[in-house]
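User: My collaborator sent over this chain with a note saying "see what the structure looks like." That's all I know about it. Can you take a look?
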Amino acid sequence: MINIEENKNLKPLNTFGIAASARYFCSISSVDELIELQQSVIYKTHKRLLLGGGSNVLFCKDFDGLVVQCNLKGIHLVRESDEHVTIQVASGEVWHHLVMHCVKNNWGGIENLSLIPGSTGAAPIQNIGAYGVEVKDVIDTVQCIDLLSGDEHVFSNQQCKFGYRESVFKHEWKEKFFISSVTLTLTKKNHRINTQYGAIADTLRQMNVSIPTIQAVSDAVISIRRSKLPDPSVIGNAGSFFKNPSIMLDHYQSLQKNNPTIPNYPSVNQEVKVPAGWLIEQCGWKGKKFGEVGVHAQQALVLVNYGNAKGEEIFSLACSIIESVKEKFGIILTPEVNIIA
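Assistant: Without extra context I'll predict from the sequence alone. Here is the result:
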């Protein structure tokens, strides 16, 4: 039997630690509970917000509708061969717990995505990625429930239209489907070890690892992330607030004349990807604090709530950063975070 609460406090349910409330709130633990919820008058007559781990959302005001929290659990073996294993993961599973489960079983493919906050169901929406790996690289299918009809759908990797921090779930299908589970295909041996991005190779050397395993790569990524990113349980944040922008090659070359050290990563279609953190740091924002909000001292991509900040204050800071980067570099930053305003 589902339980719909009223005036639910959302502060402990978002990693920014923003004080906000939901007019109605329901946590569901199965597809059957979602189907039951869909029959309720509250569901049918109010706007809805799907909430996972709350690690990619900024509440700028109370939500005058129904917040549906996904709490589906379970990791199930679908099939395996000598080389690969395919697992179906319920959308409410904590992403990092899933990564640790896979690393423990020596299943390769997502070790570079260690310590990314949030739920498994949110991973394909955002096409989460880090250190040269994106979740689209291992997704087989995404299982969904139509939020209007209750019908079940299974979408292939190609149908999800994955891009850089993008998927069809963020655009054409936004608020149309509830992701119930994700199916991943991982390697059991001959793992494709990726140590080329960030400080992984240097960290492995410091760890005296000459032949890296997926466990060693995971350990290195965790070490790097903990050294650069604040723990949300200590300082409210949603991880990287902005995407790394891609610009045309001639734009990059023009900027390079006055900024010879400007870093870049390969992109597509004659474009160059520039680290948003570097752009923000060059504009003087890194480590700045304004009352209860600020830009983290170790990673300029991370906006933080130092105590009792309001969502509007963080959003205002983000807008100021966007404007200054646009003015200095002619580049418009785009937030990764889902802003509820």
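A starting point for your reply to your collaborator: The first strand starts at residue 5 and ends at 9.
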